[in-house]
C-alpha cells in the first residue's frame, strides 16, 4: 500500500515552495518541486539557442534529456537539487531568463507528457508533498489532500522581489514583477493541456496576511483531518 500524498497547486509566487518544503519536513514526507523540472528543460532549450516557441525544436530536445532530482533534503538553501544531463542547474533554473520563458515551454504537450510520467513515478509509494500547477488535477488526482494556494498579485510581487534580492539579482520594480507574474498565470491557466486550475476537491488557502508558520500549521491540521 502507498503512503499519503499532498498536492499543492497555485499561481506563481504564492509561496508554494517554502510552504510545501516546511510541510514535508513537519510530516516527514518527501518534497518535490515539479516546477523545477519545467525550469530545467527551459534552461536546456535556452542553452542550446532554441526558440522556446518552436514546438518542433523543443520536442527534439526531449528524448535525450535526463532530469535527476534530489528529493528535498531539509536545510538546503534551495527546495531540492536538480541536474539535467548530469549538469547541476539548481541555481541556474531560477534565472530571470528561465522564469520568463518557462510557461511557453511548459505549455507544449510533448514536454508535459514527458514530465508527467517522471512525476508520477516519484509518487508510486506516496509519502510525498508535490507542488506545481496540475498536481491535484493531473499528476495525482487521487492525492489524500489537495491545497490550492493563492495570494493577491501585489503580495506575490513583494515576495518575488524579496526572493530576487536574497539571490543577489539586480532589483526589479514591483510593477514589472506584478506584470510578469500576471503574464505567467495567464499563460499557465489558458494553455490547452493541463492548465492551472483548482481541482474540485482542493481546499483553497489564501495566504495574504498569513505567516509561513500559519499556512504550514493549517495544512498540517488539514492533513491529519484528511486521514
Ligand atoms: O513553480 P514555478 O514557478 O517554479 O513553475 C515554473 C513554471 O513551470 C510555471 O509557471 C508553469 O509554467 C510550469 N509548471 C507547470 N506545471 C507544474 C509546475 C510548473 O506547468 N506542475
UniProtKB/TrEMBL annotation:
Residues 1-227 are annotated as: Cytidylate kinase. It is found in: Cytoplasm. Residues 6-225 form the Cytidylate kinase domain. It comes from the Bacteria. Belongs to the cytidylate kinase family. Type 1 subfamily. In the N-terminal section; belongs to the pantothenate synthetase family. Catalyzes the condensation of pantoate with beta-alanine in an ATP-dependent reaction via a pantoyl-adenylate intermediate. This is Bifunctional pantoate ligase/cytidylate kinase. The chain holds residues 287 to 513 of 521 of the full protein.
Amino acid at each position: 500500500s502507498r503512503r499519503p500524498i499532498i498536492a499543492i497547486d497555485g499561481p506563481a509566487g504564492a509561496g508554494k515552495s517554502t510552504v510545501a518544503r516546511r510541510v514535508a519536513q513537519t510530516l516527514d514526507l518527501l518534497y518535490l518541486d515539479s516546477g523545477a523540472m519545467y525550469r530545467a528543460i527551459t534552461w536546456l532549450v535556452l542553452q542550446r539557442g532554441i526558440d522556446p516557441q518552436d514546438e518542433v525544436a523543443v520536442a527534439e530536445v526531449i528524448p535525450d534529456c535526463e532530469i535527476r532530482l534530489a528529493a528535498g533534503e531539509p536545510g538546503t538553501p534551495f527546495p531540492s537539487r536538480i541536474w539535467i544531463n548530469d549538469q547541476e542547474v539548481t541555481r541556474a533554473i531560477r534565472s530571470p531568463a528561465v522564469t520568463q520563458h518557462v510557461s511557453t515551454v511548459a505549455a507544449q504537450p510533448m514536454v508535459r507528457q514527458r514530465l508527467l510520467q517522471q512525476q508520477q513515478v516519484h509518487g508510486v509509494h506516496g509519502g510525498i508533498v508535490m507542488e506545481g500547477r496540475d498536481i491535484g488535477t493531473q499528476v495525482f488526482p487521487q492525492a489524500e489532500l489537495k491545497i490550492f494556494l493563492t495570494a493577491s498579485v501585489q503580495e506575490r510581487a513583494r515576495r518575488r522581489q524579496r526572493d530576487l534580492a536574497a539571490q543577489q539579482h539586480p532589483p526589479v520594480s514591483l510593477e514589472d514583477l506584478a506584470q510578469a507574474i500576471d503574464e505567467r498565470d495567464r499563460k499557465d491557466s489558458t494553455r490547452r493541456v493541463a492548465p492551472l486550475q483548482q481541482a474540485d476537491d482542493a481546499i483553497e488557502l489564501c495566504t495574504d496576511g498569513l505567516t509561513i508558520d500559519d499556512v504550514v500549521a493549517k495544512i498540517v491540521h488539514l492533513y491529519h483531518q484528511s486521514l
